[in-house]
Design goal:
The chain has 24 helices and six strands. It has about 575 residues and is mostly helical. Helix 21 links the parallel strand 5 and strand 6. Helix 5 crosses helix 12 and helix 6 packs parallel to helix 18. The longest helix has about 35 residues.
Length: about 575
Amino acid sequence: MLRSIHDSLEPKLITLFRRQGYSRADFVADTIAGLAVAIVALPLAMAIAIASNLPPERGLFTAIVAGFLISAHGGSRYQIGGPTAAFIVTVSLVAMKHGYEGLVLATIMSGIILIIMAFFRAGELIKFIPYPVIVGFTSGIALLIAFSQIRDFFGLSIATVPPDFIDKLYLYLAHIGETNFIAVFLALASIGVIVLAKKHIPRIPGPIIVVTLSALAVWAFNLPIETIESRFGSIPSMLPTPVWPEITFDKLRLLLPDAITIATLAAIESLLSAVVADGMTGTRHKSNAELLGQGIANIASGIFGGLPATGAIARTATNIKAGARTPMAGIMHALWLFIFMLLLAPLIIKVPLAALAAILMVVAWNMSEIKHIREIMHAPRTDRIVLIVTFLLTVLVDLNFAIQAGIALASILFIDQMMRATQIRAVAGEEDDPDSIHNKTIPKEVEVYEIQGPLFFGVAEKLIDTLALFEKPSKVFILRMRYVPLIDAAGLHALEVLHERLHEKNTCLILSGVNHQVQKFIEKSHIDEKIGKENIVDHIDKAILRSNEILRSFSDENDNSVHRN
């Protein structure tokens, strides 16, 4: 057991080194891939921090510290970690409500939650989140990210942007007359450059071209638009000294819901990214080790003045395309970012905010899941409902509530579908089925019904209501259960109630075709003692034989009664 836990939590880096070693060629390939990813991550890390209403260096600290630790301790061969756009809404909201210290504590708490999830092997459970919930949630976040960039995209003079979607809308409409058309032109040009670069020069990341050219344009033409320097001043060229936040019970209790939201987002995003990487490379990630790495990284990110971190799908894909071979590429990406911050800090602050807003607009479009939304809109009605409800709750209410409500709604609709799929009917089976009722001789005083599907709480009432279909009670009621794969407590209770009500009508209940798993639960609940162990059989032929025995006993009792009279 302990060995199994150790294997599931062992970092992918250690597993690869132990099995195949690490050559000089691997190091060169990982170093080059790490440089390519760092060039993409540099503007994104700053843009995500700024979009979260925090200084740009917070994003750099996160990409360096968390990026290093996610690759060193995670369970994916190619995962690149750092701040992601999915956290923007949550981070800005937590920082606004509790201050940056509150955000740090929530980030550390989320790291602890992720580590606990890893030890309880919760990595496999993420796959049970319904696909429409993930798509609705992701597309809702994409809209919120794009909406959060309106201020810088249009160059609006707004000091603080509220977290609520509707409040943002009213505020933007009130200030739309202040639009800075130079900022709009620069932002649109930046989007155009990113799109064209991806099409014509895919080896050169569009975002790095955008921040370089836009910074040169602002410097050369003295453009009247906001830059990182004009809003935030200078940025440090070194990592800060690690500091633990002040911890009190009241703070822990207050921040727990936010920490759960961050941990949930980190788990979903990182494992989705790992799955995408597996699909691109044919590898397999270790989900619980990935959660452990994410937990360690988030604790360290908080201590080093960073933001929540998770696996970044776009950066991970870039890592793979750049020729990465092991998690060392992610470690090298973090080291390259540290070198950039050390040497280029005076130049980084010249980047205009409109260009960073344009980069995040493109990120939001890529996150929007338009293709998958179209697919789901042609899926069954229940999937469409789950998608739309999750999307609207994400945008208009709260991310954590949206996930919870989406999963709950999907579960309820699934149960409804299972109820409809589970049939309880009198004559079942095709004539070519040797065990079909069509091919059996059923005595006149015997009713035969069959359940097709699991007997669970959603179907229990339907089983009991079956008795209402009888015009007059029969002597024997055979309930065929050959197609019942599982049963729950409500199903067991329904069998007990069915037996009692039939007994009141002097009708004997026989269970036929009961599989081993269902039989085990019937015995554990002692229902077999009430129904009679002889009345629970594994085949319809035995059930018919037993029903003939019961009918004969009824006949003998009636004869004896006549003789006595």
